[in-house]
Every structure is written in structure tokens, then in C-alpha cells.
Amino acid sequence: MILDDAVYKVFRPDLDKPTREDAGDAFKSFILLDQPWVEVDEVSNAVLWLSSDEARSITGVQLPVDAGTLVKWPGA
What we know:
This protein is 41% helix and 0% strand. The protein is an all-alpha fold. The protein has one domain.
């Protein structure tokens, strides 16, 4: 959702055509872990695990795959 030219421009208004890499450091300010964003496969892996027999006893919980955003920004 954040990997978009318009979002890059919001985070790096100092550049005419900022790239994903240009905006990476700014994105890191929102995440607790040392990474700029959550990759698609990280979310997919959580969904696969939840739908597997290994998670058969998991019910009624939220599983944020957010690299610590909710820890850093509790009201988010």
C-alpha cells in the first residue's frame, strides 16, 4: 500500500522523482524493527500459518504483521 510513487513524493518532497529506496529511511521511522516496510511474503506466510494445522488452536486474536508499528505507535 505504501509502495507507490505518490507516497514516495510525500515522504521525500525534496526529490523530483523519488524511488522506493529514497523513501526507505523515512518509512523506517514508523517501524520498530530495522526495516523500511513489511514484505508481501511476510503477510502471506502469516496467513498460510494461520490456515495450517499448526495454528488449529489459534482463535479470536489479532496477529499484526507490522514489524513493530503497533509497539512504536500504540494509537495506530
